[in-house]
Amino acid sequence: MELFFLGTGSGVPSKERNVSSLVLRLLEERGTTWVFDCGEGTQQQILNTNIRPRRIEVIFITHLHGDHIYGLPGLLSSRSFQGGETPVTVYGPRGLKDYIDISLELSGTHLRYPLYIEEVEEGELFEDEQFIVEAVKLEHGLESYGYILKEKDQLGELQPDKLKALGVKPGPIYQRIKNQPRTVLEDGRVIHRNEVIGPPKKGRKVAILGDTRYLQHLAEVLKDSDVLVHEATFAGDEEKMAYDYFHSTVKQAATLAEKANVGELILNHVSSRYQGDSVEELLDEAQTIFPNTTIAYDFYQHPIKRT
Ligand SMILES: [Zn+2]
Ligand SMILES: [Zn+2]
């Protein structure tokens, strides 16, 4: 599980930072990638990486401001040209379906893969064997959401010592024992999985928020996230400006991370007014409140380890 930031700037592209997009690579977990927002130029950024658009399975759109969606029709269209055949689901606020349908229709674009568009409300979006994904409502100029991904706990590792002690020799039988609660051996003996397996691997919790004012009450739903990705459009002393423009300061993001007891905070959506040394100052401001903070930059990759 790895985050790959493609665009980390706010509003308009700059030479240093493209507009919003980031990818969660789940190659080991499910052989796919999930995309969060798709600002203009996202395809161009992808060309500089080893990300494969045909692996995209889900796209989450936080809100419909242009710096988060102007790259979406192009990416969907190119994926078709590049041989993407597996279905894609796009989640996002009301209006998303019109935006995509009209863009594709008026431009005469026909996708060669099934596309599902789900307009979201606060609450659970889906659950499968691996993940539960929820949307939380934020406060921004347009309807805006954060997405919270909860990975389910997974089976622990088989303990070869215990199996050997039971006289079970290594081989394909090990996989069978792991795959089912109870396995009957050739000699008629029964092996119960829970007796030969280590402790479960704890699932990870990842929260990726869209543009928002500081919302203290989010500490509850973000509680104990392994990673929180939060916008940081303004410096710490720009609280009024942040409020007026429906954004957050670095200090506010760090405060929320601290209150929610998250493992790591990654800041993105940085205004182009901050460059070079002033980005370092933003980082200092955040770290005085929440030390385990990183400010993402374009092409920054961040593995999410199990704790
Ligand atoms: Zn934005
Ligand atoms: Zn916005």
From TrEMBL:
Active site, renumbered: D67
Metallo-beta-lactamase domain sequence ranges: 201-269
Known cofactor(s): Zn(2+)
UniProt xrefs under InterPro entries: Metallo-B-lactamas, RibonucZ/Hydroxyglut_hydro, RNase_Z/BN
Assigned EC number: 3.1.26.11
Catalytic activity, reaction form: Endonucleolytic cleavage of RNA, removing extra 3' nucleotides from tRNA precursor, generating 3' termini of tRNAs. A 3'-hydroxy group is left at the tRNA terminus and a 5'-phosphoryl group is left at the trailer molecule
Entry binding sites for Zn(2+) 2: D67, H68, D211, H269
Gene3D superfamilies according to UniProt: Ribonuclease Z/Hydroxyacylglutathione hydrolase-like (3.60.15.10)
Protein keywords: Endonuclease, Hydrolase, Metal-binding, Nuclease, tRNA processing, Zinc
Binding residue positions for Zn(2+) 1: H63, H65, H140, D211
One MF term in the entry's GO annotations: zinc ion binding
Binding note for cofactor: Binds 2 Zn(2+) ions.
HAMAP family in the cross-refs: RNase_Z_BN
SUBUNIT field: Homodimer.
Family recorded in the similarity comment: Belongs to the RNase Z family.
Role: Zinc phosphodiesterase, which displays some tRNA 3'-processing endonuclease activity. Probably involved in tRNA maturation, by removing a 3'-trailer from precursor tRNA.
Protein name as annotated: Ribonuclease Z
Organism: Halobacillus litoralis
Upper lineage: Bacteria, Bacillati, Bacillota, Bacilli, Bacillales
Gene from which this protein is expressed: rnz
